[in-house]
């Protein structure tokens, strides 16, 4: 298998987990921002702007990213086979959620129905937030894919341990 020789250090795994937690928190905060933004709309002639991603709560799925990041950090600190497998499962869940969110965001950004002039500014700002979240989803897919490849490599070596770098092994020897 191609990922059999992949290695990741403990510090890299901790950093990736922390980044994933930050991306999840950012997504949840953006959902709250969109909630406040869209709740303040006024019923106009053309109606309110309620995009597909807002209705499905895609940005609220950032909770999956937070849980997966916590599991990554726990796996890096105490690498066991069960934690590695659960980290892989959560990475798969996050990758799926990010892919679905990315597709829904692209559908939302490709179609724009006219809204009331009173709500146009809110709709425009909401679309800009969706563009930022599209980049976040892409980054989330990349992070979970790379970490999954490295965790797959550690499982193929016959143990669930995250490999340590030469500098970490030297530091622990002293």
Structural notes for this entry:
- By secondary structure, this protein is mostly helical.
- It has one domain.
- The protein is 72% helix and 0% strand.
- The longest helix is centred in the C-terminal third of the chain and has 37 residues.
- The protein is elongated and about 60 Å long.
- It starts with 9 loop residues before the first helix and ends with a helix.
- InterPro entries: CD20-like (IPR007237), MS4A (IPR030417).
- One of its GO terms (biological process) is cell surface receptor signaling pathway.
Describe this structure in a few short sentences.
This protein is 72% helix and 0% strand. It is mainly α and 174 residues long.
- Largest sheet, if any? none
Question: Helix tally?
Answer: 6
Tell me the domain tally. 1
Structural class computed from helices and strand pairing: mainly alpha
- Uncertain runs are none
List keywords for this structure.
174 residues, mainly alpha, 6 helices, MS4A, CD20-like
Topology at a glance:
Elements: H1 10-39, H2 52-56, H3 62-77, H4 81-110, H5 120-156, H6 166-173
Helix pairs in contact: 1-3, 1-5, 3-4, 4-5
